[in-house]
Backbone:
């Protein structure tokens, strides 16, 4: 599903570049930056946010991606850094690329969560709802298919962002789409964390789990960017 997510990103950004810039020569470079930022950021995010004690004791395992362990919050941060480096050699500003990449990122997140479902990753809490699923790789307990909840939500967010992009009277969106991306994606993540089993190997003293705590700053940044865009319009 990760490969399919990259392909969908490439095709969408190819179309956007052709529509707005009249050429698609730089899309290949964009894809490499995004792929590197996603993988490196997601891995380091998992290491730092979810299991730092283990990796401090086993530093040789930090880049053992094949053993599993990627964090979406870290992946987003990695892409943000990669896009900043990428746009420094481009003819457009940082917010321009963030607004467009947000559409693709939301759809990619949807596909990745489908992959998580197929691989029995990210266990949901036990449930007796009619659509509960038994993940035989985990146990025999019916659980919320929380991966599909996220996949559906992210797909809807992606379509909403694309609709807003299509309806915009000017291509100078000034960070609005990216702001809504942060608010909606991480707001959804915050809510759906209540339906997930907390698999952290360490604990903290907050009643929220790590995924929720990490989502709050992204949501706040989204509201700030939305306020800033409206103030400057």
Residues:
């Amino acid at each position: 599903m990760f490969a399919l997510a990259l392909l969908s990103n490439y095709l969408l950004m190819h179309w956007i570049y052709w529509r707005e810039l009249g050429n698609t020569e730089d899309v290949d470079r964009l894809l490499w930056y995004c792929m590197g930022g996603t993988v490196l950021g997601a891995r380091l995010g998992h290491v730092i946010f979810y299991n730092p004690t283990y990796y401090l004791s086993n530093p040789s395992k930090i880049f053992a991606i094949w053993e599993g362990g990627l964090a979406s919050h870290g992946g987003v941060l990695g892409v943000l850094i990669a896009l900043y480096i990428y746009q420094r050699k481009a003819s457009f500003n940082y917010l321009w690329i963030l607004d467009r990449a947000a559409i693709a990122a939301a759809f990619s997140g949807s596909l990745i969560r489908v992959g998580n479902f197929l691989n029995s990753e990210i266990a949901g809490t036990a449930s007796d709802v009619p659509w509960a699923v038994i993940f035989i790789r985990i146990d025999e307990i019916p659980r919320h298919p929380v991966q599909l909840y996220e996949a559906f939500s992210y797909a809807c967010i992606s379509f909403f962002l694309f609709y807003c992009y299509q309806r915009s009277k000017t291509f100078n969106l000034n960070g609005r789409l990216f702001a809504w991306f942060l608010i909606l994606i991480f707001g959804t993540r915050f809510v759906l964390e209540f339906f997930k089993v907390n698999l952290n190997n360490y604990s903290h003293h907050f009643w929220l789990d790590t995924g929720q705590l990490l989502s709050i700053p992204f949501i706040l940044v989204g509201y700030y960017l939305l306020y800033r865009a409206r103030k400057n319009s």
